[in-house]
Amino acid sequence: KTIFVLNGPNLNMLGKREPGIYGTGTLDDIAADCRSAAEGLSLAVDFRQSNHEGVLVDWIQEASQKAAGIVLNAGAYTHTSIAIHDAIRAAAPLPVVEVHLSNIHAREPFRHVSKVAPHAVGMICGFGPLGYTLALQALAARI
Ligand code: DQA
Q1: What local confidence, expressed as pLDDT, does residue 142 receive?
Q2: Domain of 84: which CATH number?
Q3: C-alpha closest to that of 71 among 101, 105, 106
Q4: Complex ipTM, two decimals?
């Protein structure tokens, strides 16, 4: 079974981007973590990043055909995107676990709202890259 691990805007900048908030590890490091966690769970991961909302919508639609679940860090689109919200609804019953590196509830008020959360199985935030491994474990237990 394959899990799509989908990353939204600016996550390609990890390592350079606000390291005080997001740490010094790169997205490639997170991809490597996901691959080794998936191996231990007998899952495969298809790890992707895009800065474009519509591309993320395309990938969620593709996941509904090909994947057993989605780990989604939609970056700032989390807080704004009705299109991503709708894509997750349309992919039902495909399970989606929402991940954020930072604790979005301890940050600016505009980050406290998630348009992904209402249709996610659950949300993990504030644990940095470990959140992705936790999300894969949560999906493995569910599927
Ligand atoms: C983020 C949190 C979002 O608010 C922000 O826009 C990001 C990253 C996180 O992983 O902590 O781009 O999703």
Answers
A1: 95
A2: 3.40.50.9100
A3: 101
A4: 0.99
Q: Which is the closest atom of ligand 1 to the Cα of 73?
A: 13
Q: Could you tell me which of 6, 89, 103 has the C-alpha nearest to residue 46?
A: 6
Q: How far apart are CA 5 and CA 27, in angstroms?
A: 11
pTM: 0.97
Mean predicted confidence (pLDDT) in 46-61 = 98
User: How far apart are alpha carbons 59 and 94 in whole angstroms?
Assistant: 13
Query: Contact, 95 vs 119, CB < 8 A?
Result: no
Domain span at residue 127?
A: 2-142
Number of structural domains (the chain) is 1
Is 10 assigned a ligand-binding role in the annotation? no
Using CB distances shorter than 6 Å, the residues near ligand 1 are 10, 73, 75-76, 78, 100-102, 104, 111
Over residues 84-129, the pLDDT tens digits come to 999 999 999 999 999 999 999 999 999 999 999 999 999 999 999 9
